[in-house]
Amino acid sequence: TAQLGAVAAACAGARRIDVYGVGASGLVAQDLAQKLLRIGLIAHAHSDPHLAVTNAVQLRPGDVALAITHSGSTGDVIEPLRVAFEHGATTVAVTGRPDGPVSQYADHVLTTSTARESELRPAAMSSRTSQLLVVDCLFTVITQRTYETAAPALAASYEALAHRHAPRTTR
After folding, report:
1. What's the pTM value of the predicted model, to 2 decimals?
2. Closest by alpha carbon to 129, among 37, 21, 25?
């Protein structure tokens, strides 16, 4: 919980937040970035490793970079996190392997649960579910810390899309 609080504080005060992930972790990265945008934070998810590195070189102190990787050893996620770390951004690893290579470039590590892999790939399913739980907890704490600005931003984004949720009439 201490790590979660520290990451939430960094994100709440960040100029910009980049989230890196590929495969199933890329979907989790997109989920987190979308949630942060809805509460008025500048957040971008990057699944393309070239674009992730290109964005990471623009980060500086006061920015946050989060790498989401179940294995902790996904090179396409580690590289942009390393670049962000070298440019002074606050770096975070969301991983099931806190002793993995990604952690060497992480100021903070948020650990997810792990499952054994089998022929039906339940580890891929459980890792994504665990990652979603961690980013939802992170989002909740960030929203609590930024409530004065988050609540109106969330209401505005809901209102902007409300017409898309109107029931359709039948003929």
Report:
1. 0.91
2. 25
